[in-house]
Write a structure and sequence with these properties.
4-stranded antiparallel β-sheet; 27% helix; 21% strand
């Protein structure tokens, strides 16, 4: 007879533990945490963007530096509000005035001893134009300007100034034609050429002395400025007005110069040699304008100047042409800036004219871009 098997023990549920720290001793006693159902996430609509106008940039204000003895123009002027200086507006669509030529250079050849610097070049500058001559160092640009102003004598060719249509206030003071002036150097008399600015039209400049060419209305701002360092700003300006006799005209020209270059008015009694490079360039331009020229020859006005002052100088060049009607012949290595302000341009290479065209066309010419515009 078999003995009955004892019934199997049913698993008992875990006892309810009241002590929460008992779970740390026996993890099997910990009940499974209840998981709450996840709530659906409803994205909030983005608030509509409100169009906000950008505040206008504060204008650039140039203030003279308190130190008059600084070496470079970037130190002479400081920018308020740290805003970049405004560039002159692009003028690549400027059309040259349709007028008769005022200055004509024909088959000009200039030599330094046996070496020819200019090889029979010809060009024209019309009344009311800004004409620029660009080229590399040693191309002959400065030689051409020095020959036009009478500082060098050509070996061949001619330079003519057409006086017809000259403004009424152009300098007319001159000795009588044919009169001989004797200036004594030691005990020997020296003959000086005289001219009559009304008797001949056009006037052959290549046979005149530099001071005679200035009286006819051609002023030259040389490379490197070349102001009289030991004279004051006012004395330099008065020297530029020597073709005029009337003190009223001199005062009028001084007021115009101070209005165009306010820094010169502030430093009128200061020696020119203590001015900064940019201020000396302004003085050189103002001194040339004191003679009331018909043609202003500018030789490298941006040489050695900070970019901010270069832009200022070129704005003044455009202002002189637009407001005073002065014809400007500009020699400049900064080809982009020169072609931007000019009506027409010439490209000079090793004493020969390679290209002649409107300034807008030269800016787009592939050879000019490659050689002078960095592209």
């Amino acid at each position: 007879m078999s003995t009955p098997r004892p019934p199997k023990k049913q698993p008992q549920p875990p006892p309810k533990v009241e002590d929460p720290f008992a779970y740390d001793l026996d993890p099997t006693l910990a009940p499974e945490p209840a998981v709450a159902p996840a709530k659906p996430v409803v994205p909030k609509p983005a608030p509509p963007k409100q169009a906000t106008a950008k505040p206008a940039a504060p204008p650039v204000k140039l203030v003279p530096s308190p130190d008059p003895n600084l070496a470079f123009d970037v130190d002479t002027y400081e920018i308020q509000n740290q805003q970049p200086a405004a560039r002159p507006p692009q003028t690549t669509n400027r059309q040259p005035p349709t007028t008769a030529p005022l200055l004509t250079v024909t088959d000009l050849e200039v030599c330094y001893g046996p070496i020819a610097a200019l090889h029979g070049i010809s060009l024209q500058v019309h009344r009311g134009e800004i004409v620029t001559l660009i080229g590399s160092n040693g191309a002959g640009k400065t030689t051409l300007l020095r020959t036009i102003s009478g500082l060098l004598r050509p070996t061949r060719g001619s330079i003519q100034l057409h006086r017809s249509g000259a403004p009424a206030d152009a300098p007319q003071r001159a000795p009588q034609a044919g009169r001989l002036n004797e200036e004594r150097s030691g005990s020997e008399p020296v003959a000086v050429e005289y001219y009559n600015p009304v008797a001949a039209d056009p006037v052959l400049l290549s046979s005149l002395a530099p001071h005679a060419i200035v009286r006819l209305g051609v002023s030259h701002v040389p490379e490197g400025r070349q102001t009289f360092a030991h004279l004051s700003v006012l004395e330099n300006l008065k020297l530029g007005a020597y073709p005029h006799d009337a003190p009223a005209q001199v005062r009028e020209d001084l007021d115009r110069a101070y209005q165009m270059f306010p820094v010169l008015a502030e430093r009128r009694n200061q020696r020119a040699g203590t001015l900064s490079g940019g201020e000396q360039q302004m003085l050189a331009i103002a001194r040339a304008l004191m003679a009331r020229p018909q043609v202003l020859l500018l030789d490298e006005p941006s040489l050695g100047l900070a970019p901010l002052i270069v832009r200022k100088i070129f704005q003044i060049i455009r202002q002189i042409n637009a407001e005073q009607g002065t014809t400007i012949f500009l020699v400049e290595q900064n080809a982009h800036m020169a072609l931007t302000v000019a009506h027409r341009g010439y490209v000079l290479q090793t004493g020969t004219i390679l290209l002649a065209d409107a300034a807008a066309n030269l800016l787009q010419h592939p050879d000019v871009k490659k050689a002078y515009l960095g592209g």
